[in-house]
């Protein structure tokens, strides 16, 4: 499968994984059986971390921490298990196949709570979810509100995810929705069409195919409250391995800082080794967009450090989704996250 196919499939998958359903309950049972991890032959704590898709710039900070020795210096032996079409992070956590996993968006963690699974987000390395809406160039389009009445090309899985927020905030209606099949042709053929996408991928692909720069609206810049690229940890694992978990988060924060602010070549080399379909031009443009839009070091991270989360953001996410009927109003949304393992113990 080529690069475009990988990314488009992942875009759908990162939303589909929000609907873990009964799997979350299974995860809850298995996660309770987590025991303290043992050191390897060199005395380092072995941690397996599952990502949400194949290696890419959106995972760059973790690969940077691996390449620079940030994990090893903290006494950790970290193995990154890259995701893909057959990889389900909640299932890996449920079966104890990994100690830690990546949560693509806040829906995934909130659904785990809704199903009673004792798994929490312990860090959020993307302060902004890179979900975007893409339109044809048009001077009249200044904000998402200007997309009123236009057809939206959305994947089925998106209807119960960010579309919920769009309808609540802008009054969009379901009759605007058209089927998105991860083929840009329908979007390119209709100058009024709006297509879902990911900041670091689809806009670049469209520019290469069509030869124009599309109008891109980053939902997070207009108030979409979801975090992304979160570290998920079963409660029992976190309890029994608190020092190792704090070390993993601190090393990952160092890796993300270096990947965004420094030279990402070492991480890129590991990414391309793990995912031979990846190309350097895609890595370069994705990393630049992460930097330019403050995806990693903006928002709460600018105030409290990389990986930060706040109760206010989680409450905002729960409020809009529960009012839309996605979650019951009495759901204990605070069970979705904890900041106690962040450097300085975080906030909230």
User: Widest sheet: strand order?
Assistant: 2-1-3-10-4
SSE order, one letter for each helix or strand: HHEHHEHEHEEEHEHEHEEHHHHHH
Largest sheet: 5 strands, mixed
The portion of residues assigned to helices is 40-55%
- Computed over alpha carbons, the radius of gyration is 19 Å
Question: Total strand count, please?
Answer: 10
User: Which runs of at least 5 residues are low in confidence (pLDDT < 50)?
Assistant: 1-9, 15-32
Strand content: 15-25%
Question: Can you offer a commentary on this structure?
Answer:
The protein has 348 residues and is α/β, with parallel strands linked by helices. The chain has 15 helices and ten strands. It has a five-stranded mixed β-sheet. The longest helix is centred in the C-terminal third of the chain and has 20 residues, at 242-261. 50% of the residues are buried. Mean pLDDT is 90; it is low at 1-9 and 15-32.
């Amino acid at each position: 499968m080529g690069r475009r196919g990988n990314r488009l499939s992942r875009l759908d998958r990162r939303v589909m994984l929000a609907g873990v359903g009964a799997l979350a309950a299974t995860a809850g049972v298995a996660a309770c059986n987590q025991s303290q991890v043992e050191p390897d032959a060199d005395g380092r704590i072995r941690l397996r971390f599952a990502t949400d898709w194949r290696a890419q710039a959106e995972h760059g900070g973790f690969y940077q921490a691996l390449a620079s020795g940030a994990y090893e210096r903290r006494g950790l032996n970290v193995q990154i298990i890259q995701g893909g079409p057959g990889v389900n992070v909640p299932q890996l956590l449920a079966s104890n196949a990994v100690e830690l996993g990546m949560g693509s968006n806040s829906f995934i963690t909130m659904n785990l709570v809704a199903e009673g699974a004792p798994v929490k987000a312990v860090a959020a390395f993307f302060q902004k979810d890179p979900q975007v809406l893409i339109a044809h160039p048009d001077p009249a389009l200044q904000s998402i509100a200007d997309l009123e009445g236009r057809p939206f090309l959305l994947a089925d899985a998106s209807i119960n995810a960010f579309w919920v927020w769009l309808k609540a905030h802008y009054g969009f209606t379901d009759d605007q929705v058209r089927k998105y099949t991860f083929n840009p042709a329908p979007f390119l053929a209709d100058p009024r069409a709006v297509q879902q996408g990911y900041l670091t991928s689809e806009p670049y692909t469209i520019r290469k195919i069509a030869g124009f720069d599309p109008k891109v609206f980053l939902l997070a810049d207009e108030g979409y409250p979801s975090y992304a690229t979160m570290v998920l940890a079963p409660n029992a694992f976190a309890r029994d391995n608190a020092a190792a978990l704090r070390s993993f988060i601190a090393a990952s924060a160092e890796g993300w800082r270096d990947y965004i602010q420094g030279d990402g070549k070492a991480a890129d080399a590991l990414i391309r080794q793990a995912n031979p379909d990846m190309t350097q031009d895609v890595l370069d443009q994705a990393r630049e967009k992460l930097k330019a839009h403050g995806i990693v070091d903006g928002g709460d991270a600018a105030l409290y450090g990389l990986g930060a989360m706040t109760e206010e953001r989680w409450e905002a996410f729960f409020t809009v989704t529960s009012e839309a009927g996605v979650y019951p109003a009495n759901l204990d949304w605070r069970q979705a996250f904890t900041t106690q393992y962040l450097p300085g113990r975080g906030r909230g």
